[in-house]
Amino acid sequence: VETVAGLCVPQSALDVGEVWETDAYKVTLPMRNVAAGDIRVEEILAGCACVEASPKAFTVKPGETAEVRLTIDLTKRG
């Protein structure tokens, strides 16, 4: 389990296994709020232009889970 600022993502969700070259590899990350209060994510930023996140902003109440869908373009070259 990875926890950052009260949001917890199961390790199993981070292991995407074997991937293939595609311009739209999709991953869903369940983000559970383990904090006592609401957590507001104002914006999800990616380290490269090859990743799109949806939703980009959201609020998660204590004990609830938000799903963030990532679409990764594995064909882009740096």
What is this structure, in a nutshell?
The protein is mostly beta strands and 78 residues long.
Structure in words:
The protein is mainly beta and 78 residues long. The chain contains one helix and seven strands, in the order ββαβββββ. The strands form two sheets. It has a five-stranded antiparallel sheet with strand order 1-2-3-7-5. It has a two-stranded antiparallel sheet with strand order 4-6. A hairpin with a 2-residue loop joins strand 1 and strand 2. The chain is elongated and about 40 Å long. The mean pLDDT is 91.
Task: List the topology elements.
Blueprint: E1 2-4, E2 7-9, H1 11-14, E3 25-33, E4 39-41, E5 51-54, E6 58-60, E7 65-72
Antiparallel strand pairs: 1-2, 2-3, 3-7, 4-6, 5-7
Radius of gyration: 14 Å
H/E element sequence: EEHEEEEE
Helix content: under 10%
Average of the residue pLDDT scores: 91
Going across the biggest sheet, name each strand in turn: 1-2-3-7-5
Q: How far apart, in Å, are the first and last alpha carbons?
A: 30 Å
Structural class comes to mainly beta
Overall number of strands: 7
Helix segment tally: 1
Q: Tell me the fraction of residues in β-strands, as a range.
A: 35-45%
Instruction: Report the major sheet.
Output: 5 strands, antiparallel
Uncertain segments of ≥5 residues (pLDDT<50)?
A: none
Tell me, briefly, the overall form: elongated
